[in-house]
Design goal:
globular, six-stranded mixed β-sheet, 13 helices, 2 domains, 43% helix, alpha/beta, Nucleotidyltransferase, domain 5
Length: 329
């Protein structure tokens, strides 16, 4: 007997979806839901309940048709989202009305999707110029030529006033939020960290100058950053901290910038084009901006530059190591 305390509604409907829509066998479903999913016998009990038209979990009794969608409606929702995962709730609503002739409220749809274990997720977006083969070559070169102890990562990121403001608040449903964020356009700062598995080695924060790229750094500023913040930590190859990993921005690979690193005995290692997720400093930038949002009053009290410095000082000791390892290095 399938008890509600053992298996929730979401797990039960996940079993039904894999069996009815995807056509998986009981053995395959049990394998997919390892290690904490139900066993084969429990899966067969869930599917029998589905075929009998009773509740999938809890006591054996028929569902109340006036309170929730029936089995056919739920299967239709799962099938529609299987065919078109980017549908709006209103489009699902119209689809049920068109096929089953049933008017369903948005609230009922939200409750049903939650019970089915379906959540609204952000679509993973990549550039049209992204090349998987070039990324494979990048990782192959890393495995053949370098070790994780040799790598030093750097990249720049712009911080606008609007980035440190919270964008959501709780308010009564159906009413517009009275809270307003006010910011001054054009005031942007740039942060450039240097990190390795031993932590955030150094960083720089400065206002964005004119004639800089979209992230707020021009060639002269980046060259100065390399001299003052990267070279002091750089050692000759193949010692630790001897390989500088950067993306393929034009300011990173100017001949004079590369010469500075190579004259110190280090090497420059470029990530694959359009692969920001392979540079762990991107996650560090996100952590800093998230910290600024959690402490959103600080930028107005001490200034954006000092607030960013306080954020860097608050980075957990093992954060850099864990981030680099999680990126695959």
């Amino acid at each position: 007997m399938v008890r509600g305390s053992e298996w929730g509604t979401q797990m039960a409907w996940l079993v039904v979806m894999q069996s009815v829509i995807l056509g998986m066998s009981t053995v395959k479903i049990a394998h997919n839901l390892l290690p904490n999913g139900p066993k084969e016998r429990t899966i067969r009990d869930i599917l029998k309940r589905y075929n009998d038209g009773v509740k999938l979990v809890g006591r054996d009794r028929a569902k109340r048709k006036d309170k929730i969608l029936n089995l056919q409606d739920r299967m239709l929702i799962m099938q529609m989202l299987q065919d078109d995962p980017v549908m709006f709730l209103s489009e699902i609503q119209r689809g049920i009305l068109r096929i089953h002739g049933k008017a369903v409220s948005i609230t009922t749809l939200c409750t049903t999707l939650k019970e089915l274990g379906l959540t609204r997720q952000k679509i993973y977006t990549i550039s049209a110029s992204y090349c998987e083969w070039k990324r494979v070559l990048f990782w192959q070169k890393y495995q053949d030529c370098f070790t994780i102890e040799q790598l030093v990562f750097t990249d720049e990121s712009g911080v606008k006033t609007f980035d440190v403001m919270r964008k959501f608040q709780y308010y009564w449903r159906g009413q517009r939020s009275p809270y307003r964020n006010v910011y001054i356009a054009g005031k942007t700062h740039t942060m450039i960290p240097v990190m390795s598995i031993h932590g955030v080695l150094d960083y720089s924060v400065f206002p964005v100058p004119k004639n800089s790229d979209v992230r707020g750094t021009n060639t002269a500023m980046f060259k100065r950053f390399v001299k003052n913040h990267i070279l002091p930590h750089l050692q000759p190859f193949p010692l630790p901290h001897s390989v500088v990993v950067m993306d393929r921005a034009s300011i990173h690979f100017r001949p004079d910038v590369v010469d500075l690193i190579e004259q110190r005995g280090g090497k420059v290692f470029a990530t694959a084009p359009y692969c920001p997720w392979d540079n762990p400093t991107e996650q560090l930038h996100a952590w800093i901006k998230s910290w600024l949002k959690r402490n959103h009053e600080l930028p107005s009290e001490v200034g954006v530059e000092d607030a960013i410095r306080l954020a860097f000082a608050s980075v957990p000791p093992n954060y850099a190591h864990n981030t680099i390892v999680n990126c695959g290095y």
